[in-house]
Amino acid sequence: MKKTTVSVVALTLLAWVHSSSAALVITEVMSSSAHAGGTNNGDWFELTNTGPLALNITGWSWDDNSNTAGSATFGGYTSFAAGQSVIFSEETVGAEAAWITDWGITGVTVVNLGNGAFQGLGAGGDAVNIYNASNVLVASVTFGSATTGFSFEWDTLGNSLGLSAIGQKGAFQAAENGQTAGAGPGVDVGSPGVAVPEPAAAMLLASAGMMLWVLRRKRTLA
Ligand SMILES: [Ca+2]
Ligand SMILES: [Ca+2]
Question: How far is the CA of 216 from the centre of ligand 2 (A)?
Fold first, then answer.
């Protein structure tokens, strides 16, 4: 089989895996940051475009457990690349660079919605609901009481992975605490910008990778 054929087969299989679910998946929620103040203490959630194509979310909205389409916007953010994870945060609009620095990440898009526009996520349990431009619910997660400083994670099929843990499933500890006074090491644990593939997709990708390796090896030996 040609390399391009293998790629097409892998993409087709991935598309098939996702055919029964919406492409945009809520992959992480931080409902109780452990930072006492600072630029990364607010609530945030991560959305991942799990589909093979770019996704435009113009006119889409979200809410917490009041379950009402149109309650909150995405701050003018409209386009997800295939596979891209984007963070939507309660922090001050325009101060995204500080959040990114505090977490010590690069290449991740963060959109601050501001404290007033962001639907506060309850530390005792809450929900995130995503609605498309027709106000149809397309993604939803509920979560219980938070463990302060640890996010909840879901894989790219929306299966709950529980609390994030340092060194597991892409999770790590924030680099800094974001405070101007008493600045120091970060305490929050999460995986902003990283989404864990669901087992089926991970297996398909691994299989495709193995097929390519075998083909390359055959070519080298020939
Ligand atoms: Ca709430
Ligand atoms: Ca994540």
Answer: 33
